[in-house]
Amino acid sequence: MARRVVTACLAGALLCCGLLGAAPAFAADKTLRVLAWPGYADADVVKNFEARYNAKVEVTLVDSDEALWAQMHAKPTPPFDVLAANTAEIQRYTRANLLAPLDLASLPNTKKQLPRFQARTAIDGLTSGGQVYAIPFTYSSMGLIYDRKQIPVPPRSMRDLWNPRYQGKVLDFNSAQHNFSFAALALGYPHPFQLDATQMREIAHKLVDLRRNLLTYYTLPEEATAFFIQHKVALMFGNYGTQQVEQLRRAGADVGYVIPDEGALAWLDCWSMTRAATDRPLALAWINYMLEPDVSALLTQRQGLANTLTAPADNIDSGHIVWIGPVEDIQRREELWSKIVSGDRSERF
Fold this sequence. Notes:
It is globular and about 55 Å long. It is 32% helix and 20% strand. The chain has 2 domains: 5-139 and 267-307, Periplasmic binding protein-like II (D-Maltodextrin-Binding Protein, domain 2, 3-Layer(aba) Sandwich); 141-265 and 319-348, Periplasmic binding protein-like II (D-Maltodextrin-Binding Protein, domain 2, 3-Layer(aba) Sandwich). With 349 residues, the chain is α/β, with parallel strands linked by helices. It has 11 helices and 16 strands.
């Protein structure tokens, strides 16, 4: 399945939810370029920011870490001012010198975050060389989503994705990094982000077997919801976690969500400022704005995702959670993944 990058210039978007009146005219040289995931920068949220700062906001949405990296790695410089990425990717961008350190004095709303998210040095990826490069925004586990009617007893293991009973009724997320990592958990490897050549090959063979059990791969949560309902899917690897559960339930699906016994991957998405930011005060204003209680609350209300200001009503950290980290060889994973999804036979790996 081809990866997609969706670009949305939201300057002329219609107002939603009654948050604003008419916005003033934009200053020609005041544009903020945002790189984010679906649901992180809704039109009404953007319009409110535009009106407050008399600026134009251009939002580019991505549907995979690979697509986000491609956008951020554009030459000569990435055409973005701020981005949302998980902590593993933030470490990657920091090492590539693509991000600028953040001035916490310009981010007073960070003081409203839960204590666990203010302890930045305790979270891998937020700091480097004594400087802060990312501010936590939202998080979720990546568990199993299942149809309660077809699977009345909650699945216990990620290995259920391979169960021939569900052949043709399984969905998987189209990502090299996450598939190798969750398969490593399923196989009991203690270090799912640092695999040796033998483990990588074994997992590649296992993922070929999974491909044969799938209906298809998905990228965006909306796509997964459509597949799930139209094709009566039984089981899915939930890359977007609680966001997908919320979408499916709103669409009328009777779904459950579980953390497998062997554990589930989990991501923590953050806002960062790029080194290429042309208006750093405006970029910092955006990050601070994203942490306003009303804005963060919308993320939970609309997307079903946890925010960093309030404790979730449901404990999404229950069970064994493995926060994603940098992997041993991204290029090798992507090379193998390309062969897997293209239908290549595992004996050729």
